[in-house]
Write a structure and sequence with these properties.
The chain has 217 residues and is α/β, with parallel strands linked by helices. It contains six helices and eleven strands. Helix 3 links the parallel strand 6 and strand 7. It binds adenosine-5'-diphosphate and the ligand Cc1cn([C@H]2C[C@H](O)[C@@H](COP(=O)(O)O)O2)c(=O)[nH]c1=O. It catalyses: thymidine + ATP = dTMP + ADP + H(+).
């Protein structure tokens, strides 16, 4: 039975890596899939992992109709067994509904990957619809950590190391640029406690995990 699976996690939790692995394993077994991404940090038409791997992807945008993409290909004799959909938080509600229809009416497996909430802890519309419609929601097993050592559960947007709470919902960026480009936007994953307090690593003066702050228990 085909399914719509949503793999959710904070930034930097290994979603794109898992997307590449799933695609690799399905391809090795002779299945044929399509990879979609939207606004990947590495540029347009690519799905990239921080582990260094990247593959070509179809760039989704506002005009993309996933249902039509598959119908057109199948009409031309192409096989489409599954879709890998990265950065799915940026998909529209209608696009997520197209993905669900592909599962139900065409038997296409859909693996979607994305962050659930934005820098203000609000659900992205695409992620909200995925949570509502998915057959299976999986939290990533790799824990990303807050500077204090707790599991990171929230995404903070930073400017000059300080957490900001105003701005557009969508601003492409990375957690790895340290410090982020002058005046530019960066991201940092935090536990809820430090997200609420707006306490980033820079504000706390924590360059790395300290044994004194790390709750090892
Ligand atoms: N140099 C490295 N060595 C080992 N693992 C790394 C390295 N750099 C990044 N990673 C792993 O890659 C993960 C981020 O993977 P990625 O797929 O890019 O995340 P996401 O798509 O969720 O933002 C990190 O949590 C870490 O586990
Ligand atoms: C929190 C938050 C993130 N983004 C952007 C930043 C990145 O480009 C992607 C997440 O990519 P990742 O592969 O999961 O690291 O989302 C955003 O636009 N708005 C936000 O609030």
């Amino acid at each position: 039975m085909a399914e719509l699976a949503f793999f959710a996690g904070t930034m930097d939790s290994g979603k794109s890596t898992l997307a590449l692995q799933i695609d690799h394993n399905y391809r090795r077994r002779g299945l044929t899939g399509l990879i979609f991404s939207r606004n990947d940090r590495a540029g347009s038409g690519v799905l990239s992992s921080r582990l260094g791997l990247a593959v070509a992807a179809v760039e989704a945008d506002d005009a993309t109709n996933f249902w039509q993409e598959v119908v057109t290909r199948r009409t031309h004799g192409e096989r489409v067994d599954y879709l890998v959909c990265d950065e799915a938080q940026f998909y529209s509600v209608a696009q997520v509904e197209q993905l669900a229809r592909l599962v139900d009416d065409m038997g296409v497996d859909v693996f979607a990957f994305g962050i659930t909430t934005d820098f203000r802890t609000r659900l992205f519309p695409g992620s909200a619809r995925l949570l509502e419609l998915a057959d299976r929601v999986e939290q990533l097993q790799v824990q990303s950590l807050c500077w204090c050592g707790r599991r990171a559960t929230h995404n903070a947007r930073t400017v000059d190391g300080r957490m900001v709470t105003e701005g557009e919902q969508v601003v492409v960026g990375d957690t790895e640029a340290e410090p982020e480009p002058a005046g530019g936007v960066g991201y940092e994953v935090l536990c809820r406690r430090h997200h609420v307090r707006r306490e980033t690593a820079a504000v706390a003066g924590a360059a790395e995990l300290s044994p004194e702050t790390l709750p090892l228990g």
